[in-house]
Fold this protein.
Amino acid sequence: MKLRLRSFETKETLKIETPNPCSLQQLKELVSQKLPSTSSSSSIYLSLNRKDELTTEFPQESIQSIGITSGDLIYFITNPDGFSASPKPEQPQNPQTPIPVSSKQDEKVNIVSSETVESSNINNSSSEEVAEPMEIEDDENIVISEVGKSFSVPGFLRKVFTKELGDTDNLNHKLLRVAVHAVLLESGFVEIDPASKSLKNNNDNFSVKDNWYLAPVHYTLSYIIGSGGNIETVKIKFQNLGRYCKVYGSLVNGTTVHSVLVDEDQLVPYLNVVWANCGPMVATVGGDNKISNVEPEKQVFEFWRKIKDGISLPLLIDLCEKTGLKSPPCFMQLPTELKLKILESVSGVDIAKVSCVCSELRYLASSDDLWKRKYIEEFGNVVGVDITTGFKYRFAKTYEAKKRNSSVASRIARRRLPLPYVPPFGGGFPGIIGGDHDLFPNLGPRGLGGLGGLPHGRNPRLRNVRPNCNLGGFAGFGDH
Amino acid sequence: MTSSKTIVLRSSDGATFEVDEAVALHSLMIKHRIETGGADSTTIDVPEVTGNTLSKVIEYCKKHVEAPNSDDLKSFDTDFVKVDQAVLCHLAKASYYMNIKGLLDLSSKTIADMFKGKTVEQIRETFHIKNDFTPEEEEELRKENSWNLFV
C-alpha cells in the first residue's frame, strides 16, 4: 500500500510503497533507506499525531492491525523525544525534561550530519538511552559535536541560558548564577541533588522552586557517579553583596574554600547581550553619558576565565585528588620536558622561588644546566666562576653581593639627605630661625656638598648628636 | 602536489577537521607522518589532543600559514593566549606533541610569565600546587633560598 511519510524536522514528504502486510520494522527500514544521512532504521520513530509514538505489541505485527491504511500520513523523526518539541530551539523552554534536550539535539543533528559522521553516531546512541540522566551529558556532547566549528564561549553560554532561564523575574541574579553553572558544565561537572546523590532532573527545579537562584548547588563528575562507592561532591554558594556577588566553591567535607568576586552590575548587561546574540560590538551609554563601543564578548571571556581559573579548575583538582581520578589539565600535569622548557623562560630569582613550591619543582629547578643559563642571563658571563660549587650557589652568592653593593650605594644616596645640623661650636640645639631651615639647614647645594664623599655618610661634626633624638618628628634620620 | 589537497585530522574524542595540507604541515609531527605514511595519509590521528584544543591549534596554524608576515599577527598571538589556565596547558601540551614551534614558544612564554614576581604561596595558589614538604624540609629550603625571599 502507498503511504506518505513526512519528516517532522524538515517537513519533507516521502512517498513509500509498502508490501502487504508490512510490519513497523519493515516500514522503518524503508524510510531509512530513503533518507541520506540517517545511520540505521532503529533511530527512526513514527507517529500519527506527532505526539505518541507508533508501536506494535509484537515486532512482526503488521501496521494494518494498528489501523494504518493506504494513503495515510505518518510523521517520522530521528530521535525519540522530539515529537512534542517545538521546532525553534531558541524559544524559552517549557519545564518537561525531554524537550530542551531534544530541540538542542535537533540543532546538533542538523549541524553535525554535515560535519562528522562519528559525532552524530554518538549523539544518536545517547538519545536512544533514557533521556533524563543523559541530559547533562548531552550538554557536554554539544561541546564535542560542535567542535568542528570551534568551541565558543558565548555560544555555549547562550545554550545554557536558553535552557535554564524561563521567566524573567530577578533575571540579573539568575543570569549570573546560570553563567557560573555553564562554566562548571563545560569543565565536566554535573549537577547533583545533595540529598539523594543522584543527577538532578531539570523538570522539577528551576521554574518551580522559589528563589532557586539563591540556594547552594552541588556538583560532581559523571565518572564519580558511574564508579559507585562514595560520591564526593563540591558545593557552590553565592553571596550577594550589593553590586558584587561572591562565588564560593568548596569540596563538601573539605577544608579549602575557593572564591571569586564578580562585579554583577558590570557583568550582567554583557551576559544579556551574549544571550540575545547581539553581535560583536555594542554601543553602550557609559556612566558619563558618553556612548562608547564595547565588545561584550571580551568582558564575558574575562568572567569565564576568572570563574574557570578561580573556582572550576581548583575544585576539579580537589575532587579528582579526593577520589583518586586523574588530575585535570594544569601546569603540574604537563610533561617534564615541557615544564623545564617553561622554566627556561623564568628569571633566576623566580626559579629559586619555584624550587620552594613542591618537591617535584624543587627537583626540576635544581638542574645545574638551568642555573648556568640563568647565571649568564643575569650576570653576563661565567668567566672566573668557581664551578665546583654548582651554579645555583654561585648565582645566589653573586646576586647577594650585587644586592649588597646596590643597597650600599642607595644608603649613601639617602645619607646625603639633610641631617639635623649642629653648629660647629658644639652640641646643642639647632638654631631656631624659622620654617624648615632650622631643621634642614643643609638643604641646598652647600649643604649637600658638605656631606658628600663620606663612605658611611656620617658627618664627623655630628658625633655628639644623639642620632635618634626626635627633633620635631624626624626620628631615626641619623645613622641606622 | 596540488595546493588544494586537504588532510583530515582526528582528535582523541573522534572529532575530525579538514584542513589544507599547507596548514597541516605547520606541525612537524604531521609533516613527518605524511612523509612516512605513504599513500594512505589523508586522515591523521592525533590521539594526544582533544577536539576543542585541536580546533584552536588549527586556528593558530591557519593564521600563521595564510598570513605569516601580517602586522596583526602579534596582536593575534597576544589575544590567542588570553585563555584560562586549563586551555593554556592544553595548548602547550598539544603544540609540544604536534611539534609546532611557534605555538610552543608562545604558550610556554605565557605560562612562564605567570610565575613572574609571585611569592611561593602565590605560585601555589595560581597553579593549584600542593605543598608537600615536611616542616623540616621547609626550614631547610628557607635557609637555602634566603637570598631571594626578600626580593
